[in-house]
Amino acid sequence: xxxxxxxxxxxxxxxxxxxxxxxxxxxxxxxxxxxxxxxxxxxxxxxxxxxxxxxxxxxxxxxxxxxxxxxxxxxxxxxxxxxxxxxxxxxxxxxxxxxxxxxxxxxxxxxxxxxxxxxxxxxxxxxxxxxxxxxxxxxxxxxxxxxxxxxx
Length: 152
What we know:
Strand order of the largest sheet: 1-2
Strand content: 5-15%
Number of helices: 6
Number of strands: 2
Helix content: 40-55%
């Protein structure tokens, strides 16, 4: 014999659902979440489980905290960022005569590729093999180029 549910059972079930829905609605308003699914290997899953147990949190909250940590931008990134500094301007608004052919020299401090000799640009002498590893050799080469280059 099938027994039908009483009105009280239906009302109590409805109240529980209303409470659950109300709690979810309040939670969603505070922090909207998107449900997602990820695949972890056994080692990753075990690590995550241990971290969650150690902090008495859920595995999802541990993952969210790691993501939040990676998303934070430090204050130094905004205050000490060379890309956010004003662009330096040349006093007269003109560039150097050899700016196009020695761009790496002016932008990055590399040795010049071209020097002006007798009014014409010529390739700079080849760098010594130990230019970057021997400071004395580097200094001597740079001094030689300074003497040869008329465009300075």
